C-alpha cells in the first residue's frame, strides 16, 4: 500500500476569467471545484494508475466533507483524522497568467495532531508513505520530523515533498525521493541559479544530505533525476497547458507507482514525466489514458 499524508488539504477553486482588474468587479468565465492538497493529488493519480493507496491527513468541516465525498465516489481510500475547523479553500486564478492564493489552513489541536502520529505507526515495513505539502500554522514546526521518526520505526520507506526547514530536517532520515521544483531548490539553499551546472550541483547536494533519489522539476522544461549512480535529463512533450496545478504531485505518483512495480528508476522517471505533463494538459488531474498516450513522447537521457 502507498499511503499519502496531506497535513493541509484544500478545495482547489479554479477560476477562469479574462482581464482581471484589481479593485473592480470582475466576472468569471467558468469555475471548477476540485479536491486538492498535494498528498491527495498523489493518491488520486496512484488510484488512476491502479496502484493501492490510502490518503491520510487532517480534514474538517463542510469543505472537508466535499473532499471525502469526492474521493469516496472516485473509489480513493481515505483514513483522515477529523478536525474541528474547516479545511481551507485555495484559489487558482486562470487569467492572463496563472495566479494562486492558498489558504493557511485550520487550527489543529494537540489531540488531533497526536492521533495522526499514532495512525502512521500502524503501517508496515512493506508500505510506502508520501508526505506532501505545507503544514497548517498551528502544528509544531518539527511535526514532519516527528512523523518521519515514527515512520522509520515501522521500516517503511518515505517520500517527502515539502519546502524549507521542514524538508531539510528530514533529509538525514533517507527519503526514497524528494522533488523540489527549481524555485524551491533555490530557496532551500538561498541561491539563484545562473547555469545548468548550478542546478546539477544543488541537486547532488540533496543526495549528499541524505535523499536516495532527487527529481528537480522544471515545468515545461522537463526534469532532472539524480540517483546514487547517475543523472538523467527528462524532456517533456509539448502541448496546450490547461491547468498545471498538481503536475508535480502527478509526477511523484507516476514515479513511485512505477518504481514500486519495476524497481527501475529510468522507467519510473518516464512515467513521472508523462503523468506530470498529462495533468498540465488537463483541467483536472490526468486520466490514465492521457498519461499512457504521452509515455512514448517523453525522452530520457543519461547525462
Ligand atoms: N507546461 C508544461 N508542459 C509540459 N509538461 C509540463 C508542464 N508543466 C509541468 N509539466 C510536467 O510536470 C512536471 C512537474 O511540473 P512542475 O515543475 O511545474 O511541478 P510543481 O512546481 O511541483 O507543480 P505543482 O506544485 O503545480 O504540482 C514537469 O517536470 C513536467 O514533466
Ligand atoms: O499550500 P501547499 O500545501 O504547499 O500546496 C497546496 C496546493 O497548491 O498544492 C496542490 C498542487 O500541487 C494543490 O492541489 C493545492 O492547492
TrEMBL record:
Keywords: ATP-binding, Kinase, Lactose metabolism, Nucleotide-binding, Transferase. Pathway: Carbohydrate metabolism; D-tagatose 6-phosphate degradation; D-glyceraldehyde 3-phosphate and glycerone phosphate from D-tagatose 6-phosphate: step 1/2. Residues 7-280 form the Carbohydrate kinase PfkB domain. GO terms for cellular component: cytosol. One of its GO terms (biological process) is small molecule metabolic process. The keyword Transit peptide does not apply. Belongs to the carbohydrate kinase PfkB family. LacC subfamily. Belongs to the carbohydrate kinase pfkB family. Catalyzes the ATP-dependent phosphorylation of fructose-l-phosphate to fructose-l,6-bisphosphate. This is Tagatose-6-phosphate kinase. It comes from Oceanobacillus chungangensis.
Amino acid at each position: 500500500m502507498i499511503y499519502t499524508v496531506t497535513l493541509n488539504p484544500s478545495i482547489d477553486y479554479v477560476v477562469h476569467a479574462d482581464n482581471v482588474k484589481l479593485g473592480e468587479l470582475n466576472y468569471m468565465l467558468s469555475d471548477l471545484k476540485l479536491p486538492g492538497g498535494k498528498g491527495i493529488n498523489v493518491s488520486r493519480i496512484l488510484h488512476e494508475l491502479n496502484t493501492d493507496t490510502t490518503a491520510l491527513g487532517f480534514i474538517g468541516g463542510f469543505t472537508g466533507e466535499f473532499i471525502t465525498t469526492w474521493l469516496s465516489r472516485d473509489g480513493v481510500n481515505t483514513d483522515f483524522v477529523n478536525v474541528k475547523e474547516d479545511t481551507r479553500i485555495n484559489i487558482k486564478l486562470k487569467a492572463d497568467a496563472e495566479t494562486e492564493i492558498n489558504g493557511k489552513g485550520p487550527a489543529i489541536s494537540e489531540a488531533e495532531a497526536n492521533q495522526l502520529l499514532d495512525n502512521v505507526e500502524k503501517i508496515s515495513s512493506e508500505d510506502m508513505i508520501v508526505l506532501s505539502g505545507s503544514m497548517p500554522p498551528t502544528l509544531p514546526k518539527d511535526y514532519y520530523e516527528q512523523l518521519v521518526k515514527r515512520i522509520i520505526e515501522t521500516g517503511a520507506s518515505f517520500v517527502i515533498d515539502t519546502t524549507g526547514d521542514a524538508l531539510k530536517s528530514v533529509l538525514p532520515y533517507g527519503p526514497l525521493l524528494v522533488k523540489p521544483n527549481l524555485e524551491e531548490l533555490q530557496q532551500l539553499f538561498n541561491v539563484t541559479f545562473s547555469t545548468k551546472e548550478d542546478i546539477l550541483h544543488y541537486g547532488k547536494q540533496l543526495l549528499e544530505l541524505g535523499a536516495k533519489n532527487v527529481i528537480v522539476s522544471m515545468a515545461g522544461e522537463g526534469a532532472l533525476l539524480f540517483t546514487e549512480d547517475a543523472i538523467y535529463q527528462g524532456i517533456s512533450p509539448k502541448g496546450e497547458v490547461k491547468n498545471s496545478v498538481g503536475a508535480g504531485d502527478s509526477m511523484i505518483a507516476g514515479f513511485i507507482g512505477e518504481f514500486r512495480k519495476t524497481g527501475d528508476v529510468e522507467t519510473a522517471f518516464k512515467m513521472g514525466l508523462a503523468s506530470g505533463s498529462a495533468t498540465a494538459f488537463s483541467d483536472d488531474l490526468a486520466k490514465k489514458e492521457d498519461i499512457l498516450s504521452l509515455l512514448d513522447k517523453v525522452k530520457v537521457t543519461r547525462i
